[in-house]
Amino acid sequence: MIGDRSMLPSDLLSLIETAEDATRHYSRYFLNIALAYGGRNEIVHAAQRVVTGVRDGTLEADTITPKTVEHYLYDETPLPPVDLIVRTGNERRTSNFLPWMANGNECAVYFCAPYWPVFRKIDLMRAIRVYDQRMRKRR
Description:
By secondary structure, the chain is mainly alpha-helical. It has a domain at 81-139. Helix content is 42%, strand content 6%. It is built from 5 helices and 2 strands. The chain has helices at residues 10-23, 39-55, 66-71, 99-102, 121-138, and strands at residues 84-87, 108-111. A two-stranded parallel ribbon has the order 1-2.
């Protein structure tokens, strides 16, 4: 889960942590679910944490790199580049959505009408097909 965990109710946060613990050692595929998420907010939080590191002496300002910033994004475990974004709710834009992780990467985007709670297996299969078609074009 990526997003501002402080905005989530404790029962939902507990379920998320259980799922994360159960899949902690998976490394072949990554599924990120964005809740209470805003891309600009994510970058601001990372910048605040970097500044704190410089102030308390755990970071040197002249050694800050993109990898440093990635470390301070919501998920402290750096994620691989995003390959596919599934945008539900008939939103046809990616603005403010994963700007750091998807920008500069050849990321496929699948837009679909159903909101997340009614997102079905067929919707996921369609998204995977969009990704597959994009990968075939790149070869």
